[in-house]
From TrEMBL:
Ranges where the CAAX prenyl protease 2/Lysostaphin resistance protein A-like domain occurs: 131-230
Name assigned to this protein: CPBP family intramembrane metalloprotease
Any one GO BP annotation for this protein: CAAX-box protein maturation
InterPro entries assigned to the protein according to its UniProt record, in alphabetical order: MmRce1-like (IPR042150), Rce1/LyrA-like_dom (IPR003675)
Pfam families: Rce1-like
Keywords linked to the UniProt accession: Hydrolase, Membrane, Metalloprotease, Protease, Transmembrane, Transmembrane helix
Lineage, opening ranks: Bacteria, Bacillati, Actinomycetota, Actinomycetes, Micrococcales
Transmembrane stretches, start-end: 31-51, 72-100, 120-142, 163-184, 190-211, 218-240, 252-272
Top-level taxon of the source organism: Bacteria
Source organism: Glutamicibacter mishrai
Annotated GO MF terms: endopeptidase activity; metallopeptidase activity
């Protein structure tokens, strides 16, 4: 698919200064990574321009208009809550599976960082910060979501939801390779990290694709993407003090974090299949 090839090419081109320079230590890393987030949108725009349909960019990618305002509004709280739940469940499942050094009885680290404020108030503050940061992050995440969920997702749905989830997730994960191979997100295993990134992108992408279809807009997907990026740091609150993790195994970024979401996705498919038969 031309869109996929173009997006991967643009991603590597934008990230090339990191490979030619100091990698993750490059002073302009944040700027380069932020610009890279807009390459999927650029690929979609280029294709529409080549087809002579540049004026259809907003409509074709779900940016505008808002066709289903009620569903759009209903999807916004889900875009905030579900990504946080995805992040929060991973340490619990990972601890149960023995790959995450969880302290789920004393929560010593949570009590330590909360200080005199107490865990309850601290978590409320964190929820507010995640919501605000998620809105800010959405301004960057929209650069990706216009391409992934705005352009690619609807075109893959003709082959079925399973194909759309798997293909869009794997492509999205591979698109991260220029950063992952430098040690981003998976410093202990960059090569395996590319495969792990594909996994987390499939899991998160399943929800982002659903909310894109439900709302008929790409904006809720961008918000959910932004909230996810803002909430990943919550994982540390569940850890034993002084412990470390292998992110290919633990947290939502590793395989143990995908177990519960996979069960939920499978259950939803089972119910959907039963309704169709009925």
């Amino acid at each position: 698919m031309f869109f996929v090839a173009l997006t991967l090419l643009f991603g590597w081109c934008v990230a090339s200064p990191l490979w030619l320079g100091k990698g993750l230590q490059e002073p302009n890393f944040t700027t380069i990574a932020s610009l890279m987030m807009f390459t999927p949108s650029l690929a979609a725009l280029v294709i529409l321009l080549l087809e002579g349909r540049g004026r259809a960019f907003l409509r074709e990618t779900g940016l505008w208009p808002i066709n289903r305002p009620r569903r759009f509004l209903a999807s916004l709280p889900l875009a905030i809550a579900v990504p946080v739940l995805l992040v929060a469940q991973a340490p619990v499942v990972g601890t149960w599976l023995g790959v995450f050094p969880g302290d789920l009885q004393n929560f010593a680290l949570l009590h330590f960082v909360a200080g005199t404020k107490g865990p309850a108030l601290y978590l409320i503050d964190q929820a507010v910060l995640i919501a605000v940061a998620g809105l800010a992050n959405a301004l960057l995440a929209i650069g990706e979501e216009v391409g992934w969920r705005g352009w690619l997702w609807p075109r893959l749905l003709r082959f079925g939801k399973s194909v759309a989830i798997l293909v869009s997730g794997v492509v999205w994960g591979l698109w991260h390779a220029p950063l992952i191979l430098l040690g981003y997100n998976y410093p202990l295993a960059p090569v395996w990290g590319v495969f792990a990134m594909c996994g987390v992108c499939v899991v998160l992408g399943a929800f982002l694709g659903w909310i894109r279809t439900f709302s008929d807009s790409v904006w809720p997907a961008a918000l959910a993407h932004g909230v996810f990026n803002a909430s990943v740091g919550l994982t540390s609150l569940f850890m034993t003090v002084g412990a470390s993790i292998d992110s290919t195994e633990a947290s939502i970024m590793g395989w143990s974090g995908w177990v519960a979401p996979a069960v939920v996705i499978g259950f939803v498919y089972f119910l959907t299949a039963r309704r169709r038969r009925a």
